Fold this protein.
Amino acid sequence: MGQAVAQEAVAQRSIATMLLDWTPTLLGGFGFNVLISIFAMAIGTVMGVGLGVLQVSPIRPVRQAAWVVTQFFRNSPWLVLLFYCILLIPFQVEVFGVKIRFPGWIKAVIGLSLPVMAYMSENMRGAILSIPTVQWESAESLGFTRAQTMRDIILPQTVKRVLPSWMNLYAVLTMATPLVSIVGVSDVMALTRAALSAESRVDLLIQMYLYVLFLFFIYCYPVSLLTRRLERQFSVNN
Amino acid sequence: MTWTPDQPIVSIKDVHKSFGKVEVLRGITLDVMKGEVVCIIGPSGSGKSTLIRCINALNDIQAGSIKVEGQEVHDAKLDKLALRKKVGMVFQQYNLFPHKTGLQNVMMAPIKVLGQDRVTVEARARDLIRKVRLEGKEDAYPGELSGGQQQRVAIAPSLAMNPDIMLFDEVTAALDPETVKEVLVTIKDLAAEGMTCILVTHEMGFAREIADCIYFTDRVIVEGGPPATFFDQASDPRTREFLSQIL
């Protein structure tokens, strides 16, 4: 019986060592998740702001088209969008003799940026509409054009209003990045699976996935803390 | 035909305006001479705000004519920028851009709209802040100012455009009673300098004091005249009833 306990102690220790051994690999993979999330967020934000502005366009067909695009991508499963981008975007395109390659992870970035764009578009629309109409009229009375008003007066005011939901969206996006492992990108999830099959140790399974969860938690939780603080701060200021 | 200062600076003729099926202006005719101070009073929903919004083309009209310095406002080919340079407007609230300081608010339009030089604009903006008696508050954001101070600053951006006419749309209606006066004093200063002012207001004492002419509207101009005769000898029963409720 003493022998059994000793054996188990060896097994326990070796789980910790195994986790430690795999940590550089897993962290590398997690870094890739972070990278994908940052790129997807950046692209999605820029496109989302543009689409949100189009959603309040005075030109009806523009407004409607922007609304349709927004609703379509907002109501599509992220994984399906990912598959779509992986299959639809060619491996490389040639523009004026220059070959641009699209490796899997870039396609994944594009795929994830689409729902970000749609959520951002909707947030922007709400933020723009929440600015009192008198601001528009006041600017108009001072001779500002619509475009100038949007750029110099309305959009700067929306920053505060969308910032908390923007950060929240970022946390959600980061937590969705393991989806890219399904479409063949070597993120933390794919590497974890590789590590587990290399070790082929059943008792490592739960520990290692817990470890991955923990990685996401320590990255995302500060974001959500900061979001809560900003929300409180802005609600006091307004 | 060019406009000369002996003609009305604002000439409104038989203006009709509807929102959907509701006709809020039913043939308004009104002339304002240069340097005149005109107050428009009337019950809520009588179209008085709509009327002054039409003067700087924030609202369009269905029929009639509005001329500012001889230029027809009710015209699809209207040069809106030229009109807005001539006509300044202050609203009930939210005039100022909250993400800019008082001084920046005053400087924004001359720089971005007129393309004027920042240094000269800043000097003029500081003068205007002094004029509305808020020196020392140049770097305060609107949120840091009281309601009355905000409305006083709010007059300055329009003045920075060097307008010939100022429109005031119930600028004291959202203020605490004790801060109303400081805003009215600022407007009085402006009127005393000879600025043409058209005000929609509920401040009867103020209207009596500064107006050259008061008009009572109820979708049409019911009657109008200089304050002395208007308040004491109102002939129309609608005017009398309104005045008896408010005075």
